[in-house]
Protein 1
Amino acid sequence: MWDLIGSVASSSLIFVVFKLYSRFRVATFYAIIGNYFTAFLVGILFFPRSVPLAQLPAKPWFLPAVSLGLLFILIFNLMARTSQQLGVSVASVATKMSLVIPVIAGMVLYGEKLGAFRVFGIALALVAVYLASVKAHRVSWNPRLLYLPGLVFLGSGIIDTSIKYLEENHIPDSEYPLFSACVFGAAGTTGAVITLFRTPQALFAWRPKNLLGGVALGIPNFFSVFFLLRALQFPGLNSASIFTLNNVGIVLLTTLLGIALFEEKLAARNWLGVILAVVSIAIISL
């Protein structure tokens, strides 16, 4: 259970760092690339024994890890565009609601059983995520852009499902840090290649504060995946419950951190979502 708490805390810190980017005028795209390379280095340093890099391609999880890294970059850009075109709330809801995909995958692929009480808890969690995430302000948007949150929903769900599948079938416990490092290394390399195709002026955006922002983001980003992999081994809860608790816990903690650190204001329905999140966590945990 401590691993699940670690995953929630690490993921919530990511949102805090993102919030600070705007305050310190950090260039998000470049900080994101720096974050992936930082997470890669943390994974290499955190690995308990040395493994020659030449042996990595022979690992059964190597190619899936590279594919996940590419998907990380793609979903990030889709989330950014969704936030710009439809609003941050839409992007947040699409991301967190994607927990439905690994929940269904757990039942279909692994025969996980969910009692009526726990199904009610998951349904309540979905309502809580929606109410806590949707803000009062409205954004003018084109219905033709609905494919954006749809892709964010699908991609985020595929990422979680893939992590569970690889944890179940291909990754030894001792290689979790190395697997996480390879995922982030692939994402960072992809971002760096994308930078090369930008205008020459863009290459000079690698200012110290952008690199520092990447380091601040990369450390909790690595541990968010590392702790999630470990949490999925918890014997008392199946993966459906773990993913639900993880997502709802992130929504709950980020909401509370937003109030405490940034004096964010919540509407009545946001508070209702927070209360329902606490109730759903209690139901699923029991």
Protein 2
Amino acid sequence: MINKVVASPAAAIHDIHNGASLAVGGFGLCGIPVALIGALHDAGTSGLETISNNCGVDDWGLGILLSDGRIRRTVSSYVGENKEFARQFLAGELEVELTPQGTLAEKLRAGGAGIPAFYTAAGVGTQVSEGGLPRKYDGAGGVAIASPPKEVRTFGTAEFVLEESLTPDFALVHAWKGDRHGNLIFHATAMNFNPLCAMAGKITIAEVEELVEPGALDPEHIHVPGIFVQRVVHIPAGSPGSEKRIEKRTVQAEPDSAPAGTNGQEA
């Protein structure tokens, strides 16, 4: 019997080395592997290259690694909501490969499927394909590293740009349920980038809220089969390191209960 369960987040990430590349699941603050990121932060690992839809917020998710200068480069599709991210990028402390969101998803999926590259229409005719998109500034307003031009081919009557797939050293994901073989189920929108990251990583580490025995999961409901997952760590909902945050709260002020000019009295 293959038992992929490890005792703790620290044990799960023990061999993530300085300079490693990581695909990290989540979208905003939904479905992010909080416990694994926290363990990586505690371990002091640095020089990381992260591949994620975004880089957390200033004090949560990947943002805690970023704020301590642990991330040297990131491949992302959205870079807002994080003031420290903007500061480091403009100061020349962080390299950023800005990637269209659908392209990022396909780069991960293709990597997991063993496809080295693919053509897409996204970005044709822009700096994404033509090059020149700033990846790193020099701290004085100049561009130290710019994106290179990419191969563009015509298929039929349309042009497409060649994008290479991603196969990072590790992947960190958060799942709702998982078994000891590494089969995973994600809950609702927390699925987001998690299955794609799980497929792409050379070593995939999953934190799961509910750990079950093999055979307890309906095969038709499994989103990522265990063949893609090397380690599982149980982080029950409500336990330390399992906090879930809401990225933005919209609060609407109570409307005035009395129509203007009536002083609250009926006509």
